[in-house]
Amino acid sequence: MTKNDFNKLPECVKKQFSKPLTALYNYLPTRQTANEMQWKVRRFVWKFKDGDHAAAMFAAETVAKNIIRLYGDTAKDLTFVCVPASTSEANRKRYKDFSAKVCEITGMKNGFSAVTVSGEKLAIHEQHKGEKKFFSTRTVELKKKMLQASKVLLFDDIITKGMSYAQFAASLESVGAAVVGGIFLAKTVIS
After folding, report:
1. What is the pLDDT of residues 30-65, one digit of tens each?
2. Is position 68 within any domain?
3. Is pTM beyond 0.85 here?
4. How many domains does one find in the chain?
5. At 142, is the secondary structure helix, strand, or coil?
6. Which terminus of the chain has a lower count of CB atoms within 10 Å, N or C?
7. Calpha distance 95→100 (Å, rounded)
């Protein structure tokens, strides 16, 4: 993202980038050559995204350990919320048990049920040469009563530029939550 692109963002989105953002692993895109350790990270992230239970439980323990390291006893005052996946099914498979385990270990409030992916709808976008492209977009509903006055720590599996995190954090704050930062399984790096 260029400085000019960043400056065009709404203030509510821009301010999210000034909050603490922690990534636990480095993730190399597949177009880059990776060593064995980098391949292990790739496979782990892919399994997590696919909803693999063992990967989710390992991720939950790793994320929880790092939340306790970063926030100590104050973690118990936070609500754990995941940036929603693209579909209701993917969101449930990826985050339901994972969120429960993170919150069991840390003592955080589980915000999984405060965010609902209610389905997909088809969006049509006009392209510059008159072509039409069809995209699926998710519909996300926030339960305001569950989020109001909550201090939220956001989780997402991968952060690249951070726009998904920042836009979702701004959405949570629009219903009265206070996002304290984000924690991510991995950060995309270009070598």
Report:
1. 888 999 999 999 999 999 999 999 999 999 999 999
2. yes
3. yes
4. 1
5. strand
6. C
7. 8
